Amino acid sequence: MNSSKTVGLADVAREAGVSLATASRALNSAYGVAATTRERVAEVARRLEYVASPEASRLATGATRSVALVVPHLDRWYFGEMVGGLEEVLREAGHDVLLYHVGDPEGRHAFFEHLPARRKVDAVVVVAVPVTDHERRRLELMGVTIVAAGGQDATYPYVSIDDAAAVRQATEHLLRLGHRRIAMITAVDPDRTDQPVHRGRTRGFYEAMVRADVPVDEELVVATTWGGVQAAEAMENLLSIRELPTAVLAHSDEMALGAMRTIRRAGLRVPEDISVIGIDDHPLAELVDLTTVRQPVRDQGLQAAHLLLALLRGQKPNLAQKLPTRVVVRSTTTTAREKQPSPAHPAPDTTSH
Amino acid sequence: MNSSKTVGLADVAREAGVSLATASRALNSAYGVAATTRERVAEVARRLEYVASPEASRLATGATRSVALVVPHLDRWYFGEMVGGLEEVLREAGHDVLLYHVGDPEGRHAFFEHLPARRKVDAVVVVAVPVTDHERRRLELMGVTIVAAGGQDATYPYVSIDDAAAVRQATEHLLRLGHRRIAMITAVDPDRTDQPVHRGRTRGFYEAMVRADVPVDEELVVATTWGGVQAAEAMENLLSIRELPTAVLAHSDEMALGAMRTIRRAGLRVPEDISVIGIDDHPLAELVDLTTVRQPVRDQGLQAAHLLLALLRGQKPNLAQKLPTRVVVRSTTTTAREKQPSPAHPAPDTTSH
DNA sequence: CCCCTTTTCGGAAGCGCTTCCGAATATGAT
DNA sequence: ATCATATTCGGAAGCGCTTCCGAAAAGGGG
């Protein structure tokens, strides 16, 4: 199966009539080798299709030239997009990208206790995963550079969006349309019991409301985990309130879609009866005409990777980068209706219990 | 930054009072070391938090214990899900997972010409990427085990779904609802000009139609690249046909959503005027109540990984596995209408030019 | 109690590359 | 032409681990 013997540096050196040392220097275009020699060696290497053994050079140099990506989910658009961005610049910079999925609590625990990436990477980027103090300490045991991509984590050099600003933009969009009874479905990370809701995003909402001098009805802000069906359920609660909201702001597009499903099933119309706005600008948001605030996910990945590379090079980059967001108006938001709508069908039974 | 010196095998050996050779054997639980010795070494290793240098052991053994994942997109649900499945079992089996994104033609070319994974992995899994003959030849240069996950490729041991069957199921669902004028929006891979449309899926449609003895109107099958907005445009063409279809079958859920947007913008209703069915059961499909045929994506990843591991172990697993699909009925399909609907607004101008 | 087999372990030779150091040769100034 | 300096290159010592091979120790049978 395996064609012939793999060619090693020794073969190249012999063929080019130089020593191993010179061959190595020539190929790494290091200083101290005559231009003509370098060219000759390079030529031979090309002809022989020589590929350096990464193991050997890593052993010799100590640098692994690879970085670990620690990701909590792979199956959500946000993470795929982020990883895509990271991978692109990392790969172009000649680094290998190792993927570590730390989904559920057990997987998470396993990762931080065993540190499978130990001794294998020069750096790790945690994407949108809030690390506990203990986990941080474990990570540091690896003794490598760490950066955060996305999420709300200031423990490491990071690039993300300004979550508060994003929600503020969404809220202001609704306020501008005349909405006053604005509901918010906040997201909480299921793995992190110590931090009940998404702090930044929630804060942005309150900021915009007080700034506009509109009182917020606490009944209208509900929390749930990320995910459409969870948000759909949360929306049921919202619909069981006496005085319905005229608009709802969800912490993600998936959640917004879930809310819309509940609204429609209750016989209400979007946006005539209730406006809906999400966050992300998920690719499908365009297809369902969802108004949302767009965040540049892929860019966050790209920037985070650049940040990491700069750090690795010993430069002093900007350690805290926030990328801008902006609202994309589509057709799920409109001006606030005047009076309470009467549902065609009553809302699902979610009265009290 | 780096805490103390990393402990090496030599430290463990010294501390345990044995030779390097014995320490190595003890830790790899190889044959030929007394149980008590083994235990003592293990204990010391644990206490010192010893972690073997993967570089060194790889260099010495020749096995890399890592596998490359070659993925054409990272930002689409299907691929994230697939990668998630692969990563899970591969990681549990102690392998590292290297990610290689081969998106556009240049990236693709770069990958197959430079073979960046060369000498770095024991195996590669190509996920849903059809490889050309030339690419196949390049890949083989790596001299490693190869499997395919998803997609329509029989060049390597694979696990995927039966594409023809999936579309047949979708078509039969529509036929059962009384539809006769069924349109299909087929997907074509933009990187593969030599293979115009998705063969399997397209075939399944024709099979179901002839089996039901319903003639297919060639005007009703249109091709486009994967993606919602592309499908939306394709749908515009479909709506400019004199006698409208009563149902449309899209090759993916994203495409189905695109089609729905066009239909609704044309003032027609889904499903009353036109039924829509997709393929995949994208997580958002549930939220928008899209009827679709579900394919087990994550399972394909899991199975593919197991297949790979078996191959690596020298076993003889089933080299061609097809996982079942089934239609999930939601609310975008209903019985065929009797008469031509009259659009509230005329369809967008797509008449001839 | 001796000799032969089995078990346990240490020495040492790599794995394929990088890099320090010094030798050899070339370059330039005087 | 001469000497100091700069350039180019080869020898050799690792990087941290695995594993072959043989020596030493332990076990067993007569």
Automatic annotation (TrEMBL), chains A, B:
Q: Does the keyword Repressor apply?
A: no
Outline the segment boundaries, as ranges, of region: Disordered: 331-353
Q: Which residues form a coiled coil?
A: none
Positions of the HTH lacI-type domain: 7-61
Protein's UniProt keywords contain Transcription: yes
Q: SUPFAM superfamilies this protein is in?
A: lambda repressor-like DNA-binding domains, Periplasmic binding protein-like I
A Pfam family this protein belongs to?
Answer: Peripla_BP_3
Cite the InterPro entries for this sequence: HTH_LacI, LacI/GalR-like_sensor, Lambda_DNA-bd_dom_sf, Peripla_BP_I
Keywords associated with the record: DNA-binding, Transcription, Transcription regulation
* Example GO molecular function: DNA binding
Name of the protein in its database record: LacI family DNA-binding transcriptional regulator
